[in-house]
Amino acid sequence: MAGAGRAVADGVDCSYICDIAVHPRFQGRGLGKEIAMRLLNLSRGHRKIILYANPGTEKLYEKLGFRHMLTAMAIFSNEDAAIRKGLIAPSAPDDDDL
After folding, report:
1. Is residue 32 within 8 Å of 3, Cβ to Cβ?
2. Which of the chain's ends, N or C, has fewer CB atoms near its CB within 10 Å?
3. Which tens digits make up the pLDDT trace of 17-67?
4. Rounded Cα–Cα distance for residues 78 and 76 (Å)
5. Rounded to whole angstroms, how far apart are CA atoms 90 and 40?
6. Strands 3-9 and 14-22
7. Where would I find the H helices in 1-98?
8. Taking the domain 3-92, which CATH number applies?
9. pTM recorded for the entire structure
10. Which residue has the higher pLDDT, 85 or 93?
11. How many CB atoms lie within 10 A of CB 15?
């Protein structure tokens, strides 16, 4: 398989696009953009389309019309690894911790 992606949607409010991946042998040919465009077109009509992307790929998705969210949050089973990969920011200390 050269590439894949998926969208999980409720048909009205939200479509969630994630897991777009292209085999390294096929990268740099526009395949990732094509997968994203197809998923985006399938998601049209939802009130919001949310994308989960790897750090460093934001520019591509901005060109497709996506904007950074200010309210997204996540829980990862391996928080330290997610911080190292740049997926989440380290937690700020609570006022009680100061």
Report:
1. yes
2. C
3. 999 999 999 999 999 999 999 999 999 999 999 999 888 889 999 999 999
4. 5
5. 31
6. antiparallel
7. 31-43, 58-63, 79-84
8. 3.40.630.30
9. 0.81
10. 85
11. 22
Q: How many CB atoms lie within 10 A of CB 16?
A: 17
Q: Give the CA distances from residue 38 to residues 7, 33, 34, in Å, rounded to whole numbers and listed in that order.
A: 10, 9, 6
Contact 47, 13 (CB under 8 A): yes
Domain map (residue ranges) of the chain: 3-92
Distance of CA 9 to the CA centre of its chain: 14
74: number of Cβ within 10 Å: 9
Distance CA 55, CA 48 (A): 21
Amino acid at 27: Q
54 vs 86: CA distance, rounded Å: 8
